[in-house]
Amino acid sequence: MARVDLNHVWKRFGGFDAVKDVDLRIADGEFVVLVGPSGCGKTTTLRMIAGLEDITEGEIRIDGVVVNQMPPKDRDVAMVFQSYALYPHLNAFDNMAFSLKMRHFPDARGMPAKLPRDEIERRVRAAAKLLGIEDQLEKKPGQLSGGQRQRVALGRAIVRNPKVFLFDEPLSNLDAKLRVAMRAELAKLHQRLRSTMVYVTHDQAEAMTLGDRVVVMDRGVVQQVDDPQTLYDHPTNQFVAGFIGSPAMNFLDATIAEGNGTAWLDFGEFRLRVPANLRMVVQDHAGKTVIFGIRPEDLHDRIFAQFAQPDATVTAKVEVKEAMGSDLFLYAVVGGDTVHARVSPSTKVEVGETLDLYFDLTKMHLFDKATGAAIL
């Protein structure tokens, strides 16, 4: 195991900054996920750690050693790709053993030497047992399912016993059900190995369920680094708030108004009273227009509205209804805006009808309209 340090790392392609001033500390044994939309720089960052991309500026250290000029084969990292990258003419055993047969390891005298055949056999079979593919070792990739091929690719990395595991969207080729199963397998694998792992994905569900910490990136810049629950509850800006969470957070323009010791969020066609315990937080922005954010699960139907705080319920007209079994998703118009609500499936409402939506303002978020930075 090893820690990984990225010290003010930049990557430029011509005049384009793909990665901008990434400063990140990954602890020994930590599982860190890089997440963001396509083109945000997450894969480029991973490839710089692996040595597959040169660094324009900054410094990368693995286990305290600067690796900027070190070739990939000397960094003692193992990378698992989206495409699996298996040799089609070799069976699973030989695919997993290939790197061990090719590499030289220091012997008792510190001299480079090939691994003994029995040691290769031991490592491959131990990895296969860990991954549950002991009975698949004689099969070639074309005879394996997608999940089995992914396990072989993981096994090929595990047998090397690297300092750092690097994963580049390894589950994106799998169907939804298998992706969920493999996600759980990866989590268990990390618990068993306790190795340092850096994982790239565009899927926030993978990021939130796998990562000890999650690095949210956008346009080459790290927006926030935190544990998954902190990212969800306390996003540092509007981008993180909108990217993390499914369905996405609702955003509405609101003006903060004050009067008679009460603060209000004025949306034009309706107003919501700011809870008394939050009034001091918003008073510095009185008279200003801000971005109001609230998650779909914090909008409740009339069953909850009877318990609502005063002036926090709005009549909404349903435009779209999506029954998901455990949840009912509603797209509803409030004032001149459409909001997405996640309500109880027992809610009886049809498209075109109205219902009272209770805004749980104890869970609201406010963002600066100019910068997107979080106010609340």
Please mark out the parts with pLDDT under 50 across 5 or more consecutive residues, or reply none: none
Derived from helix and strand composition plus strand pairing, the structural class reads: alpha+beta
Overall pLDDT score: 92
Please estimate the helix content.
10-25%
Which outline best applies? elongated
| CATH C-level category of the largest domain | Alpha Beta
State the strand order across the main sheet. Answer: 6-9-10-3-11-12
By DSSP, the count of extended strands is: 22
Q: Helix count, per DSSP?
A: 10
Instruction: Return Rg in Å.
Output: 25 Å
Q: Major sheet, described briefly?
A: 6 strands, mixed
Portion in strands? 25-35%
What would you say the CATH architecture of the largest domain is?
A: 3-Layer(aba) Sandwich
Q: What's the CATH topology label of the largest domain?
A: Rossmann fold
How would you describe this protein?
- There is one protein chain.
- By secondary structure, this protein is an alpha+beta fold.
- It has two domains: 4-243, Rossmann fold (3-Layer(aba) Sandwich), CATH 3.40.50; 250-368, Beta Barrel (OB fold (Dihydrolipoamide Acetyltransferase, E2P)), CATH 2.40.50.140.
- The protein has helices at 42-50, 92-102, 117-131, 146-158, 176-193, 204-210, 228-233, 238-243, 279-282, 302-305, and strands at 4-13, 16-26, 31-35, 57-62, 65-66, 77-80, 105-106, 112-113, 164-168, 196-201, 213-218, 221-226, 250-259, 262-266, 271-273, 289-294, 299-300, 313-323, 328-334, 337-343, 354-359, 365-368.
- The strands form five sheets. It has a six-stranded mixed sheet, sandwiched between helices. A five-stranded antiparallel sheet has the order 15-14-13-16-22. A five-stranded antiparallel sheet has the order 17-21-18-19-20.
- β4 (57-62) and β5 form a beta hairpin.
- α2 (92-102) packs across α3 (117-131) and α3 (117-131) crosses α4 (146-158).
- It starts with a strand and ends in an 8-residue tail after the last strand.
- The model has no long low-confidence stretch (mean pLDDT 92).
